[in-house]
TrEMBL record:
Residues 4-227 form the ABC transporter domain. GO terms for cellular component: plasma membrane. SMART domains: AAA. Keywords: ATP-binding, Cell inner membrane, Cell membrane, Membrane, Nucleotide-binding, Translocase, Transport. This is Glutathione import ATP-binding protein GsiA. It is a peripheral membrane protein.
Length: 228
């Protein structure tokens, strides 16, 4: 079963009346339970593609079928699709408010969705990623970079997604912490039966994590690779 199908997808950046197409004619199929890699140098279009899949850029054309649901260009995600697709950013501060304690930042989306067992879910989430529960009431600046990225992963998993989007999730970390986060993601993928799409400029990270990958160059797919 395919979680994602892209057919002749092109993506634009729009500023005022100007429209600049930066990704051209992408065709991709991703199976359920797969870790799929988008690899290539900065500016090649891989993060631009990921942002469309997260519902953050509606300026695209072509065909996208995501989690067995056809998407419509120009429309943002809503309802169940918004919950089932979650993203972990390169910089954890992108998803953690610097002036809010972690408990508040992580609780708010659960409250909006009507969850009642929020404290239990937070405790279980911290245990799942190997963090102490006493960190729940800290501010983001009181954690190390690796700890903040683990919290960002908790934030994404609390909504029980089917598809996890990873935008350079370890590139800002030192090598030892990077390995810990990659191993954690592999463990979570198996435990939660997740499908993952990982953006990286590092072919070694993609080789370690992914079942299948494409290399992008100047906004187009340059090469497709399957890993044993």
């Amino acid at each position: 079963m395919s979680v994602l199908e892209l057919k002749d997808v092109s993506i634009s950046h729009v500023q005022g009346l100007e429209k600049n197409t930066v990704v051209h004619d992408v065709n991709v199929s991703i199976k359920a339970g797969e870790c799929f890699g988008l690899v290539g140098p900065s500016g090649c279009g891989k993060s631009t593609l990921l942002w469309v899949l997260a519902g953050l850029n509606p300026h695209w054309s072509g065909g996208i079928r995501l989690l067995d649901q056809p998407l419509t260009p120009g429309k943002v995600f809503s309802g169940e699709l918004r919950r089932r697709v979650q993203m972990v950013f390169q910089d954890p501060y992108a998803s953690l408010h610097p002036k809010h304690r972690l408990r508040r930042a992580l609780s708010e989306p659960l409250k909006l969705l009507g969850y009642q067992d929020i404290d239990d879910r937070l405790s279980e989430g911290f245990k799942l990623v190997g963090l102490s529960e006493n960190m729940i009431d800290r501010y983001p600046h009181q954690l190390s970079g690796g700890q903040r990225q683990r919290v960002a992963i908790i934030r994404a998993l609390l909504l029980e997604p089917k598809l996890l989007l990873l935008d350079e999730p370890t590139s800002a970390l030192d090598m030892s912490v990077q390995a810990e986060i990659l191993n954690l993601l592999n463990e979570l993928k198996a435990k939660r039966d997740l499908t993952m799409i990982m953006v990286s400029h590092d072919p070694e990270v993609v080789d370690y994590m992914c079942d299948h990958a494409v290399t992008m160059k100047a906004g187009r797919i340059d090469k497709e690779t399957f890993y044993d």
